Amino acid sequence: MQDSTKRKCLIWLVALLVSSLASCSDTHRSHKPIPKHSSVPKVWKEVRGFVRAELGLDPQSYAWPDDTTHKIQDLFNLLVTDASEMGHALQRIRIRQLVSDAPKFFSARGVLVRPRGRSVILLGAVSISKRIHYQIMEANGLVLLVRSDKLESDGFREAWIIQKNHNAPVTINVASGTLLVDKMFHNFGLVPRSHLKTEFNITNNGKTPLVFQKAKTSCTCTVVNLSNDRILQPGQSFTMVVDVASVDEPSFKQSIKVPVTEVGKNFSRILDFTLAGNYEDFFDILPKHLDFGNMSHAGKSRRTIRLSETGALQFQVDSINTNTIPLTWTMATRKDDDNAHYLITFELDPRKIQPGHHRGSLTIRTTNPSLRNIDIPVEFQVPPHVYMEPRALAFGEITLGEAIKHHVKLRSTDGESFTIFNAQSPDGIDVAVEQTDNQAVLTVTAQPEKKGPWNGKAVIEVRSKHWNELLVLKCAGYVR
After folding, report:
1. pLDDT classification of 3: cutoffs 50, 70, 90
2. Which of 87, 44, 49 is nearest to 184 (CA)?
């Protein structure tokens, strides 16, 4: 009887354990609600803030329901609710439809979605070489251009397109005050690499004065006409003018943060404006300046330039013109996804160049009309082929009719044999030469014919198999 009771207890315990394990497994498999606002993925906050601003809603003042999960469907439902609040809609389409009807969705803004709910902001589209490219902003802030027919291969599966039935300013709440802003996000689109300007129109639509503090920008290249505190009375408006200098990148994203406070209140609200755009010259080149530095006659010097496509602009290197610089070059091509990278190695032989500091440029010509010529500055320093010591002679005081001699040594800096072809000297100076293969000694005799200070230059022409060089020897003294 006792054994039977023990068996029943054991069976009951095993059943209870199995039930508990099953319950834990089901709980593990379910999507747990996100308990706090801080647990929402950062990219979701950016996407929702962008969409709300486009709809005319406050991009920061909103709540996340307690039952929000990490399912992308929940984010879509929230954005649909936001759109309905303003009388707008959010159209959900497959990427294939966006591609096939690209002209129809040319001005579309919204969200592009990859598998597992990874989403990016769709800023719009531009036309390059008669092909439509969509502007997208990744979670890391990069503004990229993706060709319409490449969206699907890049992993995008669907698009949520904002459909606005009317235009309305963005309503921003600041304590008990209210602001109306014509936009929070400005997309410059496809622009030349030059100075840019845009404006944001702001109106105090409340009943209390609001104080706008100094604007803070994410880049010194961005300047705002809000350098001091400014009070905006109820009903008043002002235009915030933004100037943007070009940056050395294929695209840009800048932010402007403006603290706003209600007069007499401690509450402060930060208005966050965003600027974005892509430059027309869609290529990346490193380095942008070819500097060979101080060269040596011991051998040739090489430098490599990497010229890369950035997805929007496809091209091939057609030719390279080194102009007056005696450069030789070789090129290798590498493929990375859909982009080509051209590695161009330039070689410079200093033995064929006159000594001194040289500046010039080379031109890379491509097959794309939008990027026909790329000019690269070139700079280098070539040392003398022959080292002369000393390079100047000071004879001091000389008695009229007296002959004074000094010796000057010449030696090859590259080990190559040379010949002194000619030595021209002014009146009162005589130059004699004693030479071996790669060194020489000049005996300079000074015998001036007039009293007083004197000076002159002796010019020595040196030649080798590969180069010619002129050396100048300065002489000076005083005749008593």
Report:
1. low
2. 49
